[in-house]
Design a protein that fits this description.
This protein is mainly beta. It is 4% helix and 57% strand. The strands form 5 sheets. The protein has a 22-stranded antiparallel beta barrel. Strands 4-7 form a two-stranded antiparallel ribbon. The protein has a two-stranded antiparallel sheet with strand order 5-6. The two termini are 29 Å apart.
């Protein structure tokens, strides 16, 4: 859960800054592994990364002892040279045959009581068919420190409150591939239960929970024709459902269509049409709202240059909350990439924007302690400009530096709301200019991996940055001995942040949440090609970690687990 909170805040910080579809790296989670699901592809990129349909519960590097994964792809004239290359693939990427284990199982537990389990079953049905079912469980049953406010400071006097939380997910997927195309269907259910923090002085026995059900089903078809001059298409249709178990259901429909073709030589033209349409039942009314996008894009690539030029026409309609600005937007989708030194240094510039509709389905995925008014919110980035570089040294050391300026409208963050003896979270939205500087250093060799990422954020309006630090740094180091013994250390540090209580909304309700450091350690041993055992400790510094006001994460916990692959 600690890494989930960090991921949520990273998303909230970056969503206003990187709407152009940059590719990120997702690290393995420690502690409670309540994942924040990326349910939809918002960036609309024609090209896509080839990934397993399974969410890897632990790092691939922890399970690669004598394992064979064939991540081959069909021919594409514009391949990314390296995983950290800023050069986006211009043509459609198609997935070759990927062989997954037919059974993957992981069971783990930590003290205080923190059980988790993952089971994936993917029968091998030949080259054309794929099918799989899966189940995930993550929970925490125990106490967490209570936060007490004195003046404008947050203190932790030692009182313990209930911090129970649980997430269960199950699903299935099916795929069929033919010579020049691919069909895919999937469906999943996620159920969660999260203890609400009681208001100080609340009567005993008044503990409450936020519970939720989420359903998702989708079907997609796309071209996988390897001919660079072929016509490309991709169509997705999806249905989503959300219920807070209080009789307020929400139904959502998602549709996305991408079409593209090579005009002449290195010139390509794509167009994307898509949107989300939703209704929610509140009392005797069922207000509707939605978002649609139309995006024509032209791309050109030759030698060291790659150019993308496009516009996005976007509109949010219906009953949704916005503070300022228009529901209709036109924003750029453009970039220029130049390989300054062959296979060693890339320079890039991006101009982009965003227009987003956050429904209850989306908000509860970001923050499971939300209040539920049935509202939806619009958040927009009229313009975002980014300049950066990425480099490689001797295929081992890589680095990157990016500077981003964004103007945001109705930027979402969260503040605390007191209701019925419990603390809930509610949306806060504000306009702000945002400056972000990000730097990354990475070293990777057969036996050692290290990464450090530093982020600085500057806001012209502090109300747009609730519970968001001005500076944070994350470092990861992993050493393996002959691909059998793995030792991994994680460290995350962030400076203090500002929290806000909605009631009463006065200067006295603005609080300074202290800085903290989160330290984790995992030791794994591959017994044979099929079995791996591990020990891990989380929040080893036993810091008071708070990503949302009034919600403190569990303290130090130590546990063990076993993984099985067949």
């Amino acid at each position: 859960m600690m890494k989930m909170r960090r991921t949520i805040l990273s998303v909230l910080s970056v969503m206003a800054l990187a709407a152009s579809g940059a590719v990120g790296t997702v690290s393995a989670q420690n502690g409670i592994n309540s994942r924040v699901e990326v349910e939809r592809d918002y960036d609309g990129s024609i090209a896509r990364a080839v990934k397993s349909p399974l969410d890897a519960p632990v790092d691939d590097s922890l399970l690669n002892f004598k394992l064979r994964f064939d991540y081959t792809t069909f021919y594409s004239p514009y391949k990314d040279l390296y995983e950290f290359s800023p050069v986006m693939t211009l043509g459609p990427a198609s997935e070759g045959r990927v062989v997954y284990p037919w059974l993957y199982a992981r069971v783990a537990a930590a003290y205080p009581w923190t059980p988790s389990a993952d089971v994936y079953i993917t029968p091998r049905l030949g080259e054309r068919f794929s099918f799989g079912v899966y189940f995930n469980h993550d929970s925490y049953w125990g106490k967490v420190p209570a936060a007490v406010y004195s003046g404008n400071a947050v203190t932790y006097p030692g009182q313990q409150i209930k911090g129970d939380r649980m997430s269960n997910r199950s699903g299935a997927f099916f795929g069929y591939r033919w010579t020049k195309g691919e069909l895919r269907m999937d469906a999943s259910y996620t159920g969660g239960m999260y203890a609400l923090t009681p208001v100080y002085g609340a009567p005993s026995g008044s503990a409450a929970y936020n519970s939720q059900d989420r359903l998702r089903a989708s079907i997609s078809v796309r071209s996988t024709n390897a001919d660079p001059s072929s016509f490309y298409y991709k169509a997705d249709i999806g249905y989503r459902y959300f219920n807070n178990r209080r009789g307020v259901p929400e139904h959502l429909a998602d549709a996305d269509l991408s079409l593209g073709a090579t005009i002449k030589g290195d010139h390509r033209l794509y167009v994307r049409l898509g949107g989300t349409f939703t209704t929610v039942t509140v009392g005797n009314t069922s207000p509707s709202r939605g978002l649609w996008n139309i995006s024509p894009v032209y791309t050109w690539g030759k030698d060291r240059w790659m150019v993308r030029a496009g516009l996005v026409f976007s509109s949010v309609y219906g009953d949704c909350v916005r503070k300022n600005g228009s529901s209709f937007m036109i924003y750029p989708d453009a970039s220029v990439n130049f390989e300054a030194a062959r296979n060693a240094l890339w320079l890039y510039f991006k101009a982009s924007g965003d227009n987003s509709l956050y429904t209850r389905y989306d908000l509860y995925a970001l923050n499971p302690w939300m209040e539920d008014s049935g509202r939806a919110y619009q958040s927009a980035v009229p313009v975002s400009l980014e300049l950066g570089l990425k480099g490689l040294v001797l295929d081992r050391f890589s680095y990157s530096l990016g500077i981003n300026y964004s103007r945001t409208a109705n930027r979402l963050s969260f503040m605390a709301l007191q209701y019925n003896y419990s603390w809930y979270q509610m949306v806060n939205w504000a306009d702000s200019d945002v400056l972000m500087v990000t730097g990354t250093l990475k070293w990777k060799s057969p036996s050692f991996y290290a990464k450090a990422e530093l982020n600085y954020r500057g806001f012209s309006n502090w109300k747009a940055a609730l519970m968001t630090p001005a500076f944070d740094v994350e470092a990861v180091m992993e050493y393996n001995l002959r691909q059998r013994l793995f030792i991994r250390a994680d460290c995350y540090f962030r400076t203090s942040s500002t929290g806000l209580s909605a009631v009463p909304y006065t200067e006295a309700s603005v609080y300074l949440v202290p800085a903290f450091v989160d330290v984790g350690l995992r030791i794994s041993y591959a017994v044979n090609p099929h079995v791996l055992v591990f020990l891990e400790g989380n929040n080893l510094a036993n810091n008071k970690i708070q990503y949302f006001l009034n919600y403190v994460e569990p303290g130090i916990n130590i546990g063990a687990g076993i993984c099985l692959k067949l």
